[in-house]
Amino acid sequence: MIYSGMKIFSGSSNPDLAEEIAKYAGVARANIELKRFMDGEISVKLKENVRGQDVFIVQSTCYPSNDHLMELLLIIDAAMRASASRITAVIPYFGYARQDRKVEPRVPISAKVVSNIIQVTGAGRILTMDLHADQIQGFFDIPVDNLFAAPILIDHVRSLQIDNCVVVSPDSGGAERARAFSKNIHAGLAIMDKRRPEANTAEIMNVIGDVNGKNCILIDDMVDTGGSISKAAVALKKSGAQDLYCVFSHPVLSADAKTKLDEAGFKKIICTNSIPLTEEKKPANFMTISVGKLFGEAIRRIHNGESVSSLFSPSHN
To answer: Torsion angle of alpha carbons 11, 13, 17, 21, nearest 10°?
Structure first.
């Protein structure tokens, strides 16, 4: 399909990332008006013509999740009613992704509910990164591009030249991610045997693999309260690990996560800017790697009808 042009709008969740994405894609970030009524209702107005345009809406559904999700939905609806040719929801961090299945009776599959709402509102495509559960792609009946932050993070970890290292998954569910990471940096692999008796609570039982005298790189897709990662750090130290590094995609960092990460004693903490952080929420030895170019290139290719598969290569940055 031939579009009359490209427009990149942004909600209020991550305007700096949206600005970087638009700059890389070669367009100015489109003008939008976002307001709040006194009762908390959100008001949206697109300040530019989008008729016949290929519209991209950048919005992470991070804290406050419900407000940012509602903003995204209203911007999608505004673009749809203004006759945009195609609307792509660009969601660097997809909230509600941890609620991707029924783990007990009488609970919703919240990720499916969110997927339905976004699709029904008028989005024709989804561009996201490091979904907590890959099966969420199947919740949509529209194209979904799930980018990976790993290539960018791997390139940065390589530049640190960490010797004698082991990549560690904080739980069995992340073993595949850790295995791929370890393969690309030619490191060993270890897995934490974790139990989660309730939400946001984790217990580390055992360390599976040899970490004695090794420099360990803990890999995860997100860090929320910091409980799992900090307890994994303690277990690794008890098992004889040397320097500890923490690498993850989404810095949710809620509650007292900063304190827990500080106490864990990581030599370096590396994540992406899929979620913006204020200075007071950043732990010590913290470093952010931008995914603006990754999303900007993906948007450029989607707009031009090109393949995005090469963006998954570890050599791409």
So the answer is: -30
Number of domains composing the chain: 2
Residues 314 and 49: their CA atoms lie apart, in Å, by: 38
* Residue at 1 is within a domain: no
CATH number at residue 271: 3.40.50.2020
Helices 150-160, 175-185: crossing angle, 10 deg rounding: 50
pLDDT digits (tens, 9 = 90+) for 261-270: 999 999 999 9
Is 301 within the bounds of a domain?
yes
Catalytic entry in 7, 45, 102, 194: 194
Model confidence pLDDT, tens digit, residues 84-111: 999 999 999 999 999 999 989 999 999 9
Q: Is 194 a catalytic residue?
A: yes
Whether pTM > 0.70 for this model: the answer is yes
Contact 50, 31 (CB under 8 A): no
Tell me if 200 is assigned to some domain. Answer: yes
